Amino acid sequence: MLANDLDTGRVERVLRREPLAQTSSIAYMYYITRTDMPRYQRVVNEFVSNSVGTLWQDQPDRTTSELSPEWFGRILADFDSVYREGMRVNPESAPWTLIDSVEITDPIVVNGRKTELVQVFKNQYEFTGGAHGISSTLSMLFDRRTGEMVFFKDLVGPAIKKVTSIVEKHFRKQRNIPARQSLKKAGYWFDKGFYIADNVRFDGTDIVVIYNPYEIAPYVFGTITIRIPFTDVSSLMRIPFSP
User: Fold this and answer.
1) I need a labelling partner for 44 at 20 to 30 A (CA). Which of 102, 104, 118, 243 fits?
2) Which residues pair with residue 22 across a beta bridge?
3) Cβ(12)–Cβ(19) under 8 Å?
4) Cβ pair 204, 231 in contact under 8 A
5) Handedness of CA 54, 59, 62, 63 (dihedral sign)
6) What are phi and psi of 170, to 5 degrees?
7) Cα–Cα distance for residue pair 18/89, rounded to 1 Å
8) Hey, which bits of the chain come out as E strands?
């Protein structure tokens, strides 16, 4: 379910490096600017504007709530400029491909009930040659009432230890790790014990915890996702449901 004032689309740019031709793209969602725009929509747009297309190099602050297809097109044009300059100075390190997508869910619906939360889900990938590209996934929550960013730990509060224990059980089951086996011996980097990643996505009847490559394991493990039925933790969470 999406707010009526969300716009979606895609912009593309073809970068050529003989004999290869790579297409870079941004698939976007954003709130259409209007005079009576709620604060949370402005905050979400500002978050999107400051986080899209940031993999290939540090960018100057371009935070804005007034987004448009042309704005996203300029981000790709900037990437194109960086690509061509990189090809001129150091062809071996020039960025080849950028794929960036933004998905907004307003409001989040959990088990058929509307919440007062908005979800921004970002996938980003860059390939510059070599063995593999660099990817990252980011899921952020915002309060529709205040516009403030909300973290998963805010929705759990004092029950964080109980919730962490439940998530670890699902992690072990889904990764085929016996209860008595050390996570470190299984190849995961939980040196100080299991923890819930900051990336948590609400997906229908499930909560999905996301660990990016290199976060808890070598690159070969890829992006690690753990699905937990919302009913397993619902009694321990403080979800702001709509009236």
Assistant:
1) 243
2) 15
3) no
4) no
5) positive
6) -70, -40
7) 16
8) 6-17, 20-31, 97-105, 109-110, 113-114, 117-127, 134-143, 149-150, 199-203, 206-211, 224-229
DSSP β-ladder status, 109-110 and 97-105: unpaired
Phi-psi region of 28 (alpha: psi -120 to 50; beta: other; left: phi over 0): beta
- Picking from 102, 116, 167, the residue whose alpha carbon sits closest to that of residue 146 is 116
Q: Which residue has the tokens 């470190």?
A: 184
Question: For residues 177 and 65, what is the distance between their CA atoms, to the nearest angstrom?
Answer: 45
Which of the residues in the chain have pLDDT under 50? Answer: 1
Measured in degrees and rounded to the nearest 5, phi and psi for residue 123 equal -120, 135
| 213 and 125 Cβ atoms separated by less than 8 Å | no
pLDDT per residue as tens digits for the range 92-133: 666 678 889 999 999 999 988 999 999 999 998 887 666 667
Cα separation, 49 vs 222, in Å, equals 27
